[in-house]
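Protocol check, entry for the methods section draft. Step 1: assemble the input record (protein sequence plus ligand SMILES). Step 2: submit for complex structure prediction. Step 3: store the structure tokens unaltered in the notebook. Ligand used here: zinc ion. Step 1 record:
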Amino acid sequence: MPLYEYQCIACGKQFEKMVSFAEADHKPECPDCHSNNTQKRLSLFASAGSSTTGTTLTNNCSSHGRFT
Ligand SMILES: [Zn+2]
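Step 3, stored output:
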């Protein structure tokens, strides 16, 4: 699941949330003030993070194969 950055417009809080593609257009609740007045921020870290996860999984598989 992709990690998105959001900012609460009501209080200015910035937070990250993992959302499924089905929820990607849904505005999450601010963890601080519980307002739904939040907006998604574009983040380069989201795509970098998911590709890093993929590499880690591949490395785990190959080392496990060698062990067997
Ligand atoms: Zn807030």
